Amino acid sequence: MTTTSAPIYPANTPIPIDLFVLKKHPGLPHGVLGFADSSGNIIYRVNRQCSNSSSYDKAVLLDSAGNPLFSLNSHHDGSWQGFKGDDGEKDLIFKVQRTLTKLRRTELEVFLVAENQGELICEFKVIGCHFQRSCTIYKGDSIVAQTSLMHKLRQIYVSRSKFRLTIFPGSVDPSLVVALVVIFLFSGPKKFRVLDKFPISV
């Protein structure tokens, strides 16, 4: 019997990518947030880890094979830092600063580390509403990605336990987009935070 691995999406894909953000999935252990494709294959998953002395919370974004892509660390001032892989705090890739947090609206600015310079340059903005599980990621005036609840015809109550992430064509690494969505979900008003609802993974 042959097995097939989940697809790997290139950064310059010519068509939009739809992923589905799940709180529960047969292929995920309890306490793990997943991003699945339309066939139900887990493409990315997120583990919450123990806090350390310099941050409140830490989450690790992994690919379908369990390889760590980004370590996401939150800090006392509401900011987040994204490091490459899971090797401590060595290779800083981006920093996210929360500029607005209200019950119905959160805004984040994303600063990427310029190659060979170490400077932080604002590249993206993330704006959305946690209650609706909706956010839009902008690069300048262009929309990079959006999340949305999955409405159905004649449906009165829309579940927030599963929703869609659409990544539009462009040169942005899908794993970076997923990392920003994870930070958005974890950084809103406390009552709507996804991170607080999951136990710590070991």
From TrEMBL:
Keyword Chloroplast among UniProt keywords: no
UniProt keyword annotation of Transmembrane present: yes
Transmembrane segments: 163-186
Top-rank lineage group of the source organism: Eukaryota
Gene3D superfamilies per UniProt: LURP1-related (2.40.160.200)
Keyword list, A-Z: Membrane, Transmembrane, Transmembrane helix
InterPro entries: LOR (IPR007612), LOR_sf (IPR038595), Tubby-like_C (IPR025659)
Pfam family membership, one: LOR
Protein family membership: Belongs to the LOR family.
Protein's name according to its UniProt entry: Protein LURP-one-related 7
Annotated source species: Hibiscus trionum
